[in-house]
Amino acid sequence: MPTVIRCTFCGRDNDPASKFCLDCGKPVVANGARLIPVPNIGGGGVVPDTRVSAKVDARPGGASGVKTPCRYCQTPVDPALPFCPKCGGRVAAEATPAKSTAVCGSCMNPVTPGADVFCARCGARVAGAPEPPPTPAMGTAVFSARAAVSGPKISILDSTGQTVKSVTMESSESTIGRADGELRFPDDVYMSPVHAQLSFRDGQLFLRDLGSRNGTWLYATEPYKLQDGDSILVGSQIIRFRRLGYPGPNPPEADATRRLGSATPSADVAVLQQLRADGSARDSCHLSPARSVVVGRAEGDWLFPYDQTMSGRHAEIRSEDLEFIVLDLGSRNGVAVAVRGERPVKAGQKILLGDQTLRVESL
């Protein structure tokens, strides 16, 4: 039974001796084609391909039967066919686009300048085709021990919150101060000569105050439970939290006379004290169980209308099960807590030392 080779790209049946499809020009070698039997209907011979006949006859001039040599391999081919069955080159007169007058410099296949970047036959770049944009030259960077350090990165911020300078911790411990340490601020009169220390251990950054006069402040990024003796910074006000404990029962009077007084609240268990620069208390706000206090410049229970650095509703000291939690109410300048002992610092958290605001960018 005779066979034909069917093109796996366009489905065209080709002669078994063909290496390229007559319709699409794709290779039809054995590893890329399927051999299919063609039944012999009504006697011997190969069944005529009516699709090819109709396609050839539809061309101008029809199938003349006159064959001309292929311009590439000199194989005689019908000029009505689009591709040479041996080498796959274009042989039809209309195969070359009307606007193209150029040929590939490698295989002489007709190409369209300005439209074809690569030759469809051999894959060579067409002369005059637009070049791809140049790849930026990365080059080899000069090794720097300082650049190779992968410790925590810290930014120094200005009064508007913009980064002025960025530094990287080069060792596991860094001291900050006005006169001594790895990070110095010699012009900051509010910073102690040796002010605070940053330590990096097991992927965690820790902050410790080194007995500075004005303290080291860590801005809260989440609700913070106040401990006895804690100091918080709200706007420009330093407020100290003190526990009072529960008062004992009053002994009965000798003459059985009752004392007058406010019945609500019945007891105060803690107090907030506004501190002056010398550490003395100026004003206070008492806290009782189940009572929350809002601190602000214009709204709340404890107001500071003269403090322009405080937001209208700045912070809340909330009572929860005899504990008191401080929360930032979305203020512009935030709420900071004075560091006592060693405190962990998270990426994105801000630190206040003297008149300098630092922000931990990464760990």
Characterise this structure.
The structure is a single chain. The protein is mainly beta. It is 2% helix and 32% strand. The chain has one helix and 27 strands. It has one helix at residues 50-57; strands at residues 3-7, 13-14, 33-37, 68-69, 76-77, 102-103, 110-111, 153-157, 163-168, 173-177, 183-184, 196-201, 204-209, 216-219, 224-225, 231-234, 237-243, 270-275, 281-287, 293-296, 302-303, 315-320, 323-328, 335-338, 342-345, 350-353, 356-362. The strands form six sheets. The protein has a ten-stranded antiparallel beta sheet with strand order 9-8-27-26-14-24-16-17-18-19, with no helix packed on it. It has a five-stranded mixed beta sheet with strand order 11-10-12-13-25, with no helix packed on it. A hairpin with a 6-residue loop joins strand 4 and strand 5. The longest helix has 8 residues, at 50-57. The protein is elongated. The two termini are 77 Å apart.
Brief description of this entry?
The protein contains 1 helix and 27 strands.
